[in-house]
Amino acid sequence: MLPENKMGKDAHTRRKFIQNSSMMLGAAALLHLPNFSFANGIIKSTDQYTVQNIIDLIIKEAKLSPFKNTVDNIKFGSADQIVTGIVSTMFPTIEVVEKAVALNANFIIAHEPTFYSATDNLAQQETNAMIQKKLAFLKEKGVVIWRFHDYSHFMQPDMITLGVKKKMGWEPYQKKGEPLLNIPAISLKQLTHQLKKNLSIQHLRTIGDLQQTCSSIALLPGAWGVQAHISTIEKNNPDVLIVGEMVEWETAEYIRDARKMGAKTALIILGHAVSEEPGMELFVEWLSPKLPGLPITHITTGDPFIWI
Question: Residue 248 gets which letter from DSSP?
Fold first, then answer.
């Protein structure tokens, strides 16, 4: 378990970094890259695409400027590498890298860390055998890994949350300017079954009365942290809060005590990877038309746990 002050720092890094970001490159600068141009939102090249060409295109088409302080940087490999194919994924696991290489894809765009910490801190590599092994493995396979986390969440709309809404068929129920989804009334039990089916999740955890009616939903896939969870509940009083993951002694205990004191909000925990996977699948649909002729594939990371 991480100390409380460390968890607060990590949550701040994930969600508040944009406050310290600034513009580093104008879109016009991209037009001066060799053998590289944009036309109607599509990359056109007289040669081949480099990793950096593609990163620049993604940022431009997301209608964002490069962030100064971000975890979205190249985790392994060279920005000048010519790309033979792209794989999107949640985590660039050993298995995902092997599958990418089998597809002749040498550029992996991952939503989450490569080296087991929020910022992919490699300062510990001298004493961490697994990091050393993974670095050697990636070098052998000749892949480049770029993280696409902060940019995806700051797209309008948020690419990751939108992916979940699309898979659930909830897009019509999002009211502009409101944080809640207002879906047709359904029991908590029915809602959990729909989530399992539509998001291909084997098991869910929930707190609440399975027969209670759910209509207003607060959807926070991934790891937003307890402050975001609780503030969302207190401001919006949803029937159910759906999260990717949470710290059991924080959000879960808050929900349990709140319900005992008469609050209505139930909790559904999807799991981190499976809760954001739909967004990285949607990313492939979004990116493919912008890179005609380049193979782009999503590889599912999946749930790492075995349920007994």
Answer: I
Q: Which residue has the tokens 């909790």?
A: 267
Superfamily in which the 163-272 domain is placed by CATH: NIF3 (NGG1p interacting factor 3)-like (3.40.1390.30)
Per this entry, what is the length of the chain? 308
Q: What's the pLDDT tens digit per position in 206-257? A: 999 999 999 999 999 999 999 999 999 999 999 999 999 999 999 999 999 9
Beta-carbon contacts of 283 under 8 Å, excluding residues fewer than 6 positions away, are 88, 109, 148, 152, 159, 163, 298
Rounded-to-integer distance, Cα 256 and Cα 266, Å: 9
CA distance 264 to 188: 12
Angular region, 275: left φ>0, alpha ψ -120 to 50, beta rest: alpha
The structure's pTM equals: 0.84
> What are the φ/ψ torsions at residue 226 (nearest 5 degrees)?
-65, -35
Among the listed residues 211, 248, 243, 215, the one whose alpha carbon sits nearest the alpha carbon of residue 229: 243
Q: Of the candidates 93, 103, 105, which has an alpha carbon nearest to the alpha carbon of residue 137?
A: 93
Domain ranges (residues) in the chain: 4-154, 163-272
Give the H or E element holding residue 147. Answer: strand 144-147
143 DSSP assignment:
-
% of the chain surpassing 90 pLDDT? 77
Closest CA to 112 of 222, 245, 11: 222
Fold of 4-154: 3.40.1390
Asked if the peptide bond before residue 157 counts as cis, ω within 30 degrees of 0, the response is: yes
301 vs 274: CA distance, rounded Å: 8
pLDDT value of position 28: 36
CA pair distance 201, 271, nearest whole angstrom: 9
Structure tokens at 67: 């962030």
